[in-house]
Amino acid sequence: MVKSDQTYRRVLYALFAAIIIMQNFVPFLGYIPVGPLNLTIIHVTVIIAALTLGPSGGAVVGGVWGVITWVRAFVWPTSPLAAIVFVNPLVSVLPRILIGVVAGYVFAWLTNKMKKQYLAMGIAALLGSLINTLLVLGQIYLFYNGHSQALYQIDTKAMMPYIIGVVGTNGIPEAIIAAFVSPLIAKPLLKRVRKR
Asked: What total number of domains does the chain contain?
């Protein structure tokens, strides 16, 4: 890779990281409050990074979001549940990194299998978003099954239906948003990056 290409790529990383930081700290840019949880739209930025910069770029940008989520859990949590569960980096950091990895690799694989780039991007975005939802909520159930109920008066038997409800009310809408919005932004951006 030519030095100017490395510099260009670093600038794009910095740009995506700046957007992630803004989405985390400017109200309603990254989190839309819905009951005790927040509808997240930051994952769209991570997916766009993965679609334009590849799995490694998506992993870096997802990692930035994950570290911010982890730090915020200690100092300024986005919800009462975040203060309990996101202090664990397996819940706060790992799923964010895997958004970019999954979206990037799925897009690369689908690009070789189908001609419609927009559709390939949409499927990759959908799967990247779902991996985040499934890992975060799955690990909440795995690690905090006996703890978070006290906060929301959920008994142990109701924990799984509660998580399934969150998948339905938050996870699926987030995945649909990602599938439609990510390709709209990523396709022209990818064209520009490739032309460079």
From this structure: 1
Does residue 114 come out as left (phi exceeding 0), alpha (psi in the -120 to 50 range) or beta?
A: beta
Decide if 107 contacts 120 (C-beta within 8 A): yes
Could you tell me the CATH number of the domain that includes residue 29?
Answer: 1.10.1760.20
Give 70's contacts (C-beta < 8 A, 6+ positions apart). 86, 87, 89, 92, 93
Residue 175 pLDDT greater than 50, yes or no: yes
Cα separations in angstroms, 143 against 83, 91, 167:
14, 9, 17
* Cβ contact 10:60 at 8 Å: no
Tokens 């490739």 sit on residue: 194
Domain hosting 103: range is 3-195
Other C-beta atoms closer than 10 Å to the C-beta of 16 total 25
pTM of the predicted model as reported, rounded to 2 decimal places? 0.88
CA distance 139 to 94: 11
Instruction: Please tell me the predicted confidence (pLDDT) of residue 162.
Output: 67
Total Cβ atoms within 10 A of residue 182 = 29
Q: Is 139 helix (H, G, I), strand (E, B) or coil?
A: helix
Specify the amino acid at residue 40: T
Measured CA angle at 95 (ends 158, 68), to 5 deg: 105
Tens digits of residue pLDDT in 139-160 = 888 887 665 455 555 555 566 6
